[in-house]
Amino acid sequence: KAGVTQTPRYLIKTRGQQVTLSCSPISGHRSVSWYQQTPGQGLQFLFEYFSETQRNKGNFPGRFSGRQFSNSRSEMNVSTLELGDSALYLCASSTGRNNEQFFGPGTRLTVL
Amino acid sequence: QKEVEQNSGPLSVPEGAIASLNCTYSDRGSQSFFWYRQYSGKSPELIMFIYSNGDKEDGRFTAQLNKASQYVSLLIRDSQPSDSATYLCALEGSGGYNKLIFGAGTRLAVHP
Question: Best interface-test mutation with B: which of A9, A43, A46, A49 has the largest number of B CBs within 10 A?
Answer without folding.
Answer: A43
